[in-house]
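One example copied in:
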Amino acid sequence: MSGVNGHVVVATGFNREVATIARPGVVAIAGGGAPDRLRAALERAAAGARGILSYGLTGALADGLEIGDWIVADRLAGALDTATDPRWRDALAAALPGARIGGFFADGRMIDTVAEKRRLGVDHDALAVDMESHVAAEVAAQRGLPFAIARIVSDRVDHLLPHAITVSMRADGGVDAAAMAKSLARNPGQVADVARTMALFGKGFRLLGKGARRLGPRLQFPH
């Protein structure tokens, strides 16, 4: 990682999320639902880094959160319980219009019922869930780096992702169109929900890009 000393590392899920945040001084990594691969990539990128940010789309765990709402974490629960860096948290929230500050949950699982989403929100006092934050937090803690989370809602608490969507994440951060098509062929009843989910994701990605521009070249890193 020569030439990127003083950079900010960003952990996210999809290559499309990486594209919204790509800029000089930022090393963004798509986890692709593969935690070991993500951890290894983050550990390499953390050499000489200033901090690690978990960023991208997120699923809501509480009522009242709509598609496009930003959530900035003050703490993380799940595989690792930790507070986020308060200065970075506040700077991120100030830069993102209407951002909510609250808890996140992450343990690497794909939450597969609406009831469990609601339960996790209540049990952990969490607003949202993702699949990368716990890995990013672990690497940040090991390296003694500031850690923060800023994510945008693309999935409401009362919506369960259809199977064709849940199997479509490739380990390299791309979309597995073949796996999606196979799932749709087995269960054509998903088609309408998949189309609706993709439209919601599309809105989330558009608003994610707008928010990324507001974060500026250093992603509001205050240290």
Summary: The helical segments are 15-21, 35-45, 86-95, 114-123, 133-143, 163-166, 177-186, 191-215. The first helix runs from residue 15 to 21. The mean pLDDT is 92.
